Amino acid sequence: MSWLALALTPGVGPARFLKVFAEGEDGLERVGELLGVELERAYRRVLDAGGAERVKERAAVLGVRPVGLWEADYPPTLRHLADPPPLVYLKGGWSGGRPAVAVVGSRKAQPWALDFSERLARSLAGSGVAVVSGLARGVDTAAHRGALAGGGPTLAVLGSGVDVVYPPENAELAGRVTLMSELPLGSGPSAGSFPRRNRLIAALADAVVIVQAPEKSGALITAALAAELGREVLAVPGRPSDWASRGSNRLLADGAAVVQAPEDVLEALGIGGAAPRPDRPEPEGAAGALWEALRRRGEALPDDLALDLNLGAAEVLGLLTQLELSGHVRALPGGRYEAVG
């Protein structure tokens, strides 16, 4: 009898697997009683055909490790789910054991949000925090790249099999991060697979940061699932008039914690976010010019600074994000900014 064979049996999803698993080893002898004759026959077919052995052999060739709910090295926080996947496939090293933050948001994120995501993830990784995301275009990609730049581990939870990279342009990035999926090897992405993978992202993280999300973003599903699991939910404020930030701004209105700098996330995790910032050199180049302009004004809107410096709005927002993360500016209510120091 084999838990792996049961997990691979067509028609046996998390709920049915758990029904058998709750009975311990005795449950494998009572599959027909617990799940019905048809599923028992399907389970026997997987056993008789050596399906479990074939999956393990194929996984080994691909450098993938199948990890089951019945095994000691199954990711422990996935057990917090009401419907933990019976089996996950891991490609790359991932042992857990350190704080983890999910950084997620829009696939069509604006330049400032991409810049913020990358810098936030880089800083978190440099502070010993693992970064979890979904390898999607936009915020996810920026978060993975930032975590790699910060020298920390980063986990991509996929809505496809770990051997089917989506989107395909992230193939190179996928080769540098740890991949996880509950979907069988060879599975392509589907519309229904992404909401289900979001529950894994929420469970694997101690906190979830939504960088930028419109009203119907899948990132909001992740935030809702994280809240149900008792995880910290945080969001980065966007301009009130910006449709691309309406979802994340609504999270803030509903009580999510505000993220303006990496220290906000570290403080939420209880790992030194309140520590004083070390002295930093004054910014140079365009960032330095913007900082000086903001010091002269006291506080200002990004559009005002763009006019002062004859820069584009997107460039100013990117520079402000850079200066926020370095501790040189602070965001204020109403979309205004002030210089620090």
From TrEMBL:
Pfam families: DNA_processg_A, WHD_DprA. Residues 275-335 form the DprA winged helix domain. It comes from the Bacteria. GO terms for biological process: DNA-mediated transformation. Residues 69-269 form the Smf/DprA SLOG domain. Transmembrane segments: none annotated. Belongs to the DprA/Smf family. This is DNA protecting protein DprA.
